[in-house]
Fold:
Amino acid sequence: MKQEGIFFWKSAPFVKLLLAWIAGILTGWYVMPPFQLLYIFSGICLSVLLFSFISLIHLRFRYRLWISLSAFLLCVSAAAILTQKENIRNRKDYFEKFYQPGDIMTLTLEEPPVEKNKSYKANASIQYLVRHERQIPVSGTFILYFSKKDSLIIKQKESNKLQYGAMLVVQKTPQPIKNSGNPGAFDYERYCLFQGITHQFFLRSYDYSILNVKNENALKTLVFQARQKVVSILTKYISGNKERGLAEALLIGYKNDLDQTLVQSYTNTGVIHIIAISGLHIGIIYWLLQLVFLPLSRKKNMKSLHFICVIGGIWFFSLLAGAQPSVLRSAFMFTVLALGDTLNRKTSVYNSLAFSAFVLLCMHPFWLWDVGFQLSYAAVTSIFLFLKPIYHLFYFQNKILDFLWKINAVTLAAQILTLPLSIYHFHQFPVLFFISNFLAVPLSGIILIAEIVLIGFYFTEPVAYGLGRIIETSIRIMNHFIEQIEKIPGSLWDGLSVSFLQLFFLYFTIAFVSMWLFYRKTTFFLFALGMLLFFFGIRAFSFLKSEQQRKIIVYHVPGQTAIDFVDGRHYRFFGDSILQQEGFARNFHLKPSRILHRLKEQSRAIHSSEQGLFMQFFQRRILCLKNNIQGTLPIGKNPEIDLLVISKPSDFSLKEILQQFHVKQVVFDGAAPYYKTDDWKKTCDSLHVPWHDTGKSGAFVMNIR
Structure:
């Protein structure tokens, strides 16, 4: 056992380096030590390593622990420095350090605008701030939203003026990107920051002008043109909208035409990895390229050319797919494998994985928080660890049955390490994932190969039309199969909530169970049992805590009223009826909070009563000013109001209401008109009434003891 462990660390040195690098990234983001301290610390560690390098061998052996520790800490320091430097806000030329109201900005579109429901969306980088005819070079990236209500913008889009490389002059104050502020909500602000984006613009045609020059990168231009050509070919030969959208996502990761209902079906059945380009796609591309360039590999003097052709094809496909983390990981993996094959050397799979992850995190440390990055590495590691033991559980002489079992064995193996992450991030578990993968995985592989052949022979119309019909029919069969699986009762275990600490103990449980199965040591079984007890202990405590909660949550939902009255694990909703229906607004704004608080809806009233817009929840009195308030206020009375929620009110005098009632707290929700809230806040301040604006500070939570 000990010898196997020593052999593993020797054969996979990049695993240790990767662990140190990850520790440094976490230190750089969460601790944020001063640069000066990090540089001094790095200098000390580097001095120790240099001294050990020139010292005698017996001294190296005597102080090997300090040398190893210095190497580890040097790696941690370097990663912490890189992480802080990668944060756009720490850059010396970050635009916000120089921007003044009234400055003109020169921006470059970094991608073709994508059509949304009410706008066109694109990312743009800033080159200069222009102030008093003086150009100030700065850096930063913005999200631009071009209004579709503006006919001039539509004409500019159709005439290709608003395309990648277009340079815009904008004189408008950018808006900072903020989270919704609702409990448990997705941290969109951090997500954008990790991509170097901190602000956004909502533009009409009079807010900007297009320059006659372009700022393009030849490689990016080629990639966008190639992607557009592929999309046009698929559009021509695949007629169905749902089928074409899936074909585009499957081949090049183009998701603009995807049917969102279909995406939800693939998510709920555990086959979303088919749509998200991953190692499966790169593996098929790698196999095809190996097949095409096989004659070159058989000649000794052509092996280098074979390697260049295969790897060149993989990387070109990766660029077409948008250079997503999962694609880059797979491209690195197969590059290492192909290099080892060319040099006739076999490398450790885990060392190759660690090496690819290390390089990616050197390129962009914030990919560590990318869910796709995490799931990708968890899946590949899980397959290498558990595929053989699972596959050898059953033996089939029939080759077809054996092939089908191997596909399911791969799916089962991948789920072992991805399941905890999936529950942690998505709060759901597709119970019938092994059934949906049974058809979807092999069929998606066949569809991908057919699409590649279609792109290769698109100029031969009879062949292209035939392939288009085959692809469309195959995708329709796969979609129908997935949608039917989703309809099976109990196919999805939804609303799961796992904390980071629970995730930690869950992975330790999996690790010790695996070691017990591999090595049959009772000690590992006892450790696994202990980790599992910790997991369920924390979970039981969280449920007990949830049973004791009582609170009122006023959510921030743009244009809507949404209030949850929480009693234990039950809640009663008050607000607009659209938020009671299954849809984006409910799932995005309300569902994360209810999962976080472990809530389930109760149809009957929970210690509350309604009289018009007055409500009482335990000992708290709530008044919601919504729509026409005439006749709802009891004139002549002077009751205490614990919570006044202002939401979509008609014309009224807040000062009169605050003087008529003893109001303890005012809340402006997402439906309150923003152009009036500033005056209302001044009124509250003049009467010394505390106020809370959900648009600025997120949801308001009143805990009731």
In short: Residues 399-426 form the longest helix (28 residues). The chain is about 55% helix and 15% strand. Residues 222-364+434-494 form one domain. The first strand starts at residue 104 and ends at 109.
